[in-house]
Amino acid sequence: MTVRRVPSLAHWGAFTALVEGGRVIGCEPFAKDPAPSAMIDAIPEMVHSPLRIARPAVREGWRDGKPRTGHDRFQEVSWDEALDLVAGELTRVRREHGDTAIFGGSYGWSSAGRLHHARTLVRRFLFQGGGCVDQAGNYSWGAAQFLLPHVIGTYQPVAGRVTDWPSIVTNTKLMVAFGGLALKNGQVSSGGMGAHVLEHWLRRAKEAGVRFVVISPLKLDAPDFLDAEWIPIRPNTDTALMLAMAHTLVSEGRHDEAFLARYCVGFDRFKAYLLGADDGVAKDPAWAAAITGVPAETIRALARDAAATTSMITVAWSLQRAHHGEQPYWASIALAAMLGGIGEPGAGFAFGHGSMNGVGVPRVDIPGPEVFMPPNPAAKAIPVARIADMLLNPGAPYEFNGRRDVYPDIRLIYWAGGNPFHHHQDLNRLRQGWQKPDTVIVHESWWTPTARHADIVLPATTTLERNDVGGSSRDPFVLAMKQAIPPVGDARSDFDIFHALARRLGYGDVFSEGRSEMDWCRGIYERVVAGAARKNIALPDFETFWEQGSVELPDPDKDFVLFEDFRRDPALYPLKTPSGKIEIGSDTIAGFGYADCLPHPAWLPPAEWLGDATAREWPLHLVTHQPADRLHSQLDPAGASRRHKVKGREIIRINPDDAAHRGIKDDDIVRVFNARGACLAAAVLDPGVMRNVAVMATGAWFDPSQRQVLEQHGNPNVLTLDVGTSRLTQGPSALSALVEIERWDAALPQVRAFVPPSIIRAAPDAA
To answer: Is there a single domain that holds both residue 628 and residue 733?
Structure first.
């Protein structure tokens, strides 16, 4: 039998699917990818997984109002019945409760393709039908997204371009990386990628003589070949270290007064805070040492070194996913301004160089593939991480970015793309809130925890069962994503599902715009072609692109340096802040009157950290990070992820001394717990984890016991705190939590995360 070769794209890289007899039998890396991710090997297994949702299904007990347990039985139904049920529920809820009783839930990692991007599709569908409650921001850099416009007039340094690697390689002498530069994070990108290049650029920087200093509780946050200086730090205390570095610059006269005077406002207010003019506490290295665990002389020496050479301060996205997560970002900008290098080649500040592939990659400045979004007639959105708050507290007031609002009363959740029972914090609290709506509708390809907590489940195709166009503004490739196999079971693409529903609801032509799937693919690509033409770049026509499978953009003609134009002429190129300058102190934020976000960078003790009194009861600070063998919770059922588990549980890294104190050995199953919840995990003793810290990857499929008192698989978000970063940004605080760990000596419960729910089967649709 002939093996067909079909080009496609995933968030972990471009690849060629090998297809035989209607099945995907293997995947080959993209020929132009210098360091392809092994994650592509999991694709055939996932496409044909026994966890695939074969047909539309309805939860038993939904019509009777019984609670969603995650252990319910489902009844398969025909597509016609399922679509009628969904259309009927949408009509009923809009009629009885209004458009703001519908919550459009999604997260954008379900597809690297732009047409079948689930978050785009669910919003287009609901907006065109009258609107819904939307989500503002994201979990990746939600706090930064709403802070940075007040400080530098844009959130581009997290959403788009930062000073690129060629500029760093050529010019930087010292790179200080708060949160690390872990290679595992470079395996993925939000729009997919043709080339994995993080390791390439790090090696080039090392060869060029860049000195790396990595500040993290985990030594593994930097690859060995960097020979990086590791400064262990207590979790959630990076701001205190930055403030102490800033204090050293001021007290020793090493700050760039000319830069601060010409390009910044509010420094005097910040300087007074550093020196303790208001509170009597100088934010000096001795003060910071007591908070961070980093010796005062280490802090002082690092500040002096940074001032003496061309320095880049880069901060991982993870640091702002914490209580008061705005502060390390604001403090890093203030520190870089005091060093005076902002806008100079290889200097200044950046965010995310080690957080995702493509950050800092040189790319000609044209838009990536995208589908435009219509406005939301309901004009209502909540901060993305406040879902449980909204569900549990309808009508309650909240504050966000200078405005006051109240939470809507949600009667229907429509979720397509993403798994909130992975990425949301305090999952036991989310489960409580999830009981409140009348109906939960989910599009999903597999029986994920979110699908198991739904009332109506609609089976969605995977990438290889449809046509699409992929790529991002961080990667030089535009990639064809060709359908390789027919839909598995009775699955349909999200686009087709929404189109069928829109027809039932009377706006099918508005949703589809009268275009087929391939018409849409052509239109997406031709917008890229038009954007390239405006930069005098000629790209091939659609037919040629589709036949080739990819197009590579030319290299840019110069290195990109963040705020280079502003540095050259701040009057001609002002920032989009009220002052037109970098706002180290912000009058706008001062006007909000938030005690949890002062009008300048500040040390605000987080709700949970090792310096708090609660650490006497919960003496270990758990840090959660991106796994190395999957993307978030995607691919968790695949062999590559399961092989890295121990006795079916996710691993937790702890320092050998902490383990010995608790009688824990390598591979022991342990209970990790606090007042919010508990989960099982497998211990790995690691001297590269600092004392009193534990580290655990996110993404294990949520597997609560029948009594809901123990998560059995190793999902750390049963432990994390569900509070907003501050009233300013209301971002997620899921980075860490205080916990205790004890050896589990009882019988091990069965992990059921990868066992499909009980299903009453129906005959396949005739069509």
So the answer is: yes
- CA 704, CA 90: separation in Å to the nearest integer? 30
Pairing between β-strand 57-59 and β-strand 456-459 as defined by DSSP bridges: antiparallel
Residue 235 to residue 617: CA distance in whole angstroms? 17
By three-state DSSP, how is residue 338 classified?
Answer: helix
User: What is the count of structural domains for the chain?
Assistant: 4
Going from the C-alpha of 341 to that of each of 204, 334, 512, the distances in angstroms are 22, 11, 49
CA–CA gap between residue 722 and residue 767 (Å, rounded): 45
Helix (H, G, I), strand (E, B) or coil at 552: strand
Closest CA to 125 of 146, 104, 100: 104
* Structure tokens, 45: 């297994």
Residue 316 maps to a domain: yes
List, by residue number, the catalytic residues. 107, 109
Q: What is the CATH number of the domain that holds 258?
A: 3.40.228.10
Q: Are residues 508 and 622 in the same domain?
A: no
Task: Give the domain CATH number at 397.
Answer: 3.40.50.740
Tens of pLDDT, residue by residue over 302-311, are 999 999 999 9
Asked if residues 738 and 676 have their Cβ atoms less than 8 Å apart, the reply is no
The reply to whether 203 and 265 lie within a common domain is yes
Domain contains 159? yes
At 107 the pLDDT is 82
Q: What is the pLDDT of residue 762?
A: 82
What is the predicted pLDDT for the residue at 109?
A: 77
Which tokens hold the place of 694?
Answer: 């534990």
Q: Which domain holds residue 26?
A: 4-47
Structure tokens at 470: 């992929």
What amino acid occupies position 69?
T
Query: In terms of C-beta density within 10 A (0-12 exposed, 13-18 middle, 19 or more buried), how is residue 405 classed?
Result: middle
> Cα–Cα distance between 200 and 220 in angstroms, integer?
18
CB distance 624 to 698 below 8 Å: yes
The residue ranges of DSSP E strands in 389-527, in sequence order, are 397-400, 403-406, 412-416, 439-444, 456-459, 468-470, 477-481
d(CA 385, CA 734): 10
**195 plus 318 within the same structural domain:** yes
Q: From CA 54, how far away is CA 311, in angstroms rounded?
A: 54
**What mean pLDDT comes out for the span 175-201?**
95
Please write the tens of the pLDDT for every residue from 710-731: 999 999 999 999 999 999 999 9
